[in-house]
Amino acid sequence: MGQRREVDLATFFEDKSDIFKIPRVYKNRDALSGNFIPDELPHREEELRRIAQYLSYAIAGNTPPNLLILGSTGTGKTVTVKKVIKELKNYAGGMVETLYTVVGRTQQQTLIFLGQQMGVRLPARRGFDENWRKFKNSIDGDKKVIVVLDEIDKILPSCDLLYYLTRQQNICLVGISNKIGVMEMIKDKRVISSFNPIKIVFKRYNSSQLADILRYRASMAFCNGVLDDGVINYVASLAAKSGGDARYALDLLAFSGDIAISEGRSKITVDIVRKAMNEVEIEYIRKSISDLTDPQKILLAIVVASNENLSPSAVYNICKKVMLSYCGRDLTSWRLSEYMSELDLLGFVRIIKKGRGKGKGFSWYVQLDMSRDVILDIVREELNKMDIDFEHVVKLVKLAKGG
Ligand code: ADP
Ligand code: MG
User: Is the distance from the beta carbon of residue 213 to the nearest atom of ligand 1 less than 6 Å?
Assistant: First the structure.
């Protein structure tokens, strides 16, 4: 079978009508995607059962307790909650209202997303309180409503939305976060007491659990015999080392499949997985850069452009100039330094102290903490999306260094 496909490929470029004839690797590539909700969730049966138990109170007409689902990235939080919600919808029909959204950049945006699911349009230019009233009125007061806010930490410390939601008698709020300390990010005392969630912690998967998950998803995604022996275990051990992240493992498999196809092969080998690692890494960096705030993207671009010789305050000054000329507003050095510390925490930059020579004290510098080659193009692209020319940033940096 595999042989015949290779013969097809040999004639690939001669017969233009054959351009879509590629090695048969995938049965259903979607089965590897993050949005796919599989029938089974190996090693999450217990968590699934607990969440289902609490949410099932709604079927009997009781408001379920608020929940907070915690655990690091790729531990199956989102897929497990989505699965319970899906089953609940099937089971309870219209008796229970369920809303799910990944939070937006602001509470207003998040409320708009929730409104969309209720079929109400909440204009962004209206005040938050007015939109809240409209949203509240759209909810049937006799029905139990389960509101899932995924990545809930992203709207904190703003708390009005959480306060309003948790104050409604018929709403159960389910928060999901990969920040274990998310409750400490809530500063509003009223919310701390009205949210007061039951916490359910998802542990990181170990290598053998990841292998079980991969085997199951791979059996849906790939044609028989595509995966070489050892590939699943290899991918599982890589993912276990990088934090037990199932998404990373699945992405690695999908990229490997794509590479196999692009090389005209119908088998995925450990060698192909090694090649895929690089691409996945770059994809992850791309995603984490695009998740940054606009000022953070500018700060990062300045550090990339500066080749590591600027003090934090010089970086902030350049950032203010860029912001002023491109969006007409800037931020205080204090805010920028908070943003910079976060870039440090995320592993993009390092703020370091260097001695100026014996007895001359020291200075602070900002250093790039990852390969410049890898992120240069990504940063340039992100700035482009904001209508900022990277070369302009380079010029400003040169100017600052010269001065
Ligand atoms: P989190 O929300 O914790 O970051 P996700 O729920 O998005 O993680 O899971 C990441 C990926 O791994 C998704 O594609 C998901 O379907 C898959 N996944 C996670 N846990 C399991 C599991 N136990 N069984 C099958 N697939 C899983
Ligand atoms: Mg998630």
Answer: yes
44 lines ligand 1 (CB under 6 A): yes
Residues forming beta bridges with residue 343, ordered by sequence position: none
The gap from C-alpha 43 to its chain's centroid, in whole angstroms, comes to 22
Q: Same domain for 263 and 187?
A: no
Closest residue by CA, ligand 1 atom 21: 76
Residues 65 and 186 in one domain: yes
Segments forming the whole domain that contains residue 232: 9-33+205-288
Q: How far is the CA of 157 from the centre of ligand 1 (A)?
A: 27
Same domain, 280 and 309: no
**From the CB of 220, is ligand 1 less than 6 Å away?**
no
Residues 258 and 347: beta-carbon distance below 8 Å: no
| 38 within some domain | no
Summarised one tens digit per residue, pLDDT across range 223-282 is: 999 999 999 999 999 999 988 999 999 999 999 999 999 999 999 999 999 999 988 888
Closest atom of ligand 1 relative to the 72 alpha carbon:
3
Confidence of residue 284 (pLDDT cuts 50, 70, 90): confident
Distance CA(187)–CA(183), nearest Å, equals 9
- Residue 2 in any domain: the answer is no
With a 6 Å cutoff on the Cβ, whether 295 touches ligand 1 is no
Q: Is residue 172 part of a domain?
A: yes
Q: Which residues are CB-contacts of 312 (< 8 A; sequence separation ≥ 6)?
A: 337, 340, 351, 364, 365, 366
* 266 in a structural domain: yes
pLDDT tens profile 18-37: 666 777 899 999 999 989 99
Cβ–ligand 1 contact at 77 (below 6 Å): yes
